[in-house]
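Re: duplicated header lines in exported structure tokens

Our pipeline writes sequence and tokens for each protein into one text file. With two proteins the header for the second block appears twice in some exports. Here is an export where it did not happen, for reference. First protein block:
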Amino acid sequence: MIQAAALVEGLRPAAVLADKAYDADHFHDTLRQLGATAVIPPRPERAQPHPCDWRLYKERNGVERMFSRLKQFRRVATRYDKLLSHFRGFVLIASIVLWLR
């Protein structure tokens, strides 16, 4: 979970959407220090659950679906391109193709 805090280090997000696996007090504290809203559903065993904006959490579904569609492109899923610029370019092209469908 400490690695999750490193992912948002140096960023200024308004909100962070994550699944139940990221429901830890220290991660919520890190997000609060950054001024971000934690949109993380509470784990069922939590005695005092943190609040969660369920309307905003539904946005996460669209992001997950987009990643799933991008992985249908074999070149993206297996990362044939070793250079970041080439990989990023193909992800952009694949995104455009998916958007136009």
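Second protein block, exported in the same file:
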Amino acid sequence: MHLERLWQDVRYALRMMHRSPGFTAVAVLSLALGIGANTAIFSLINALMFRPLPVQNPEQLVELVGQYPGEPRMNFFWWKFYEHYRDQNHVFSDLIGMSPARFQVSGEGFDTETVSGEYVVGTFFPALGVQPAMAG
């Protein structure tokens, strides 16, 4: 009974789409663009926000941020603050720090190239359970 009714509805929809092909083309194109845009946006958000970080125990990571009243959120600390938090830490299993930098990289038979990287504290890689791609 339900399948027969569904089949009647599908045949009716196909007849109506055949009767006005211009409207059908606009509707199908609109749906295709909408679905495509949503898929692209979700793929980007999924890659950036929903997937776990490729480190050991990503659910245990915590980011310390500072904010003075009326000022924007900051996720950086001076070295003295880092040392204080590291030395007085009784809660976290480890405390890591990093600072963005630009490096000149060269090799035998290659031109020197400027690349983006980060200076990190000594426990950075063991704390995250990863290996550096290159150490210098």
